[in-house]
Amino acid sequence: MSDKVRLDAEILPPMPVVLAGAVVEGRVNFMAAAWVTRVGHKPPMIGVSINHRQHTGKGIRENGAFSLCLPGPDLVELTDYCGLVSGRNVDKSALFDVFYGDTPHAPMIRQCPLCLEMALVQAVGLPHHTFFIGEIKAGWADAEILSNGRPDVEKYKPLLLTMPDNRYWTLGEHVAEAWSVGKKRRKGEAS
């Protein structure tokens, strides 16, 4: 077993990349975000951390709704661009074919293989960011990325971001079944 090396606190695990969408001052806007995590199961909730300077946060607060669109590797250039320019200065909605589901003010991107429409549940203020927690109201997926009616990550290849090297990745190989592979260890446990 190798020795552990102490790392700087800014080292983060790989994070899923999304294009967070909102209507800001009447105009559709998207921004690249990677500080995204699931925070609840029933109801299904996801949180996204957005810097206070970002234009998108204003729209989420204004309308109580947003979207999380998961781009595949074919959208990496546009995704990165959406993280480099502000919606205050650039109409990023013109980059995409925008559609809506049942949640007003939650614009989604048809080119993304998987999109989630979100209703804002809570906004948690942090020193430099707001952590927006949203309830998933509906998901929208391209039929070809589904296996047994569910999104298949091998088919849509979600983007991941690593920091501080600032590199985009896709997922690697399937390793094992969750809540299953560890059962072999339980055979000898006392009930």
List the helices and strands and how they pair.
Layout: E1 15-16, E2 18-24, E3 27-33, E4 36-40, E5 45-51, H1 55-63, E6 65-70, H2 76-84, E7 98-99, E8 108-109, E9 114-125, E10 129-141, E11 146-147, E12 150-151, H3 153-156, E13 160-162, E14 167-169, H4 183-186
Antiparallel strand pairs: 1-13, 2-3, 2-6, 4-5, 5-10, 6-9, 7-8, 9-10, 11-12, 13-14
Structural notes for this entry:
The chain is mainly beta. It has four helices and 14 strands. Strands 3-2-6-9-10-5-4 form a seven-stranded antiparallel β-sheet. Strands 1-13-14 form a three-stranded antiparallel β-sheet, with no helix packed on it. A two-stranded antiparallel sheet has the order 7-8. The longest helix is centred in the N-terminal third of the chain and has 9 residues, at 55-63. 29% of the residues are buried.
Give the helices and strands as they follow along the chain: EEEEEHEHEEEEEEHEEH
Report, as a whole number of angstroms, the end-to-end distance.
Answer: 32 Å
Strand content: 35-45%
Put simply, the count of helices is 4
The coarse silhouette is globular
- Oligomeric state of this protein: single chain
What structural class do the secondary elements suggest?
Answer: mainly beta
Low-pLDDT sequence parts: none
Strand order of the largest sheet: 3-2-6-9-10-5-4
Give the overall pLDDT as a whole number. Answer: 93
Radius of gyration: 18 Å
What is the share of helical residues?
10-25%
Largest sheet: 7 strands, antiparallel
The strand count comes to: 14
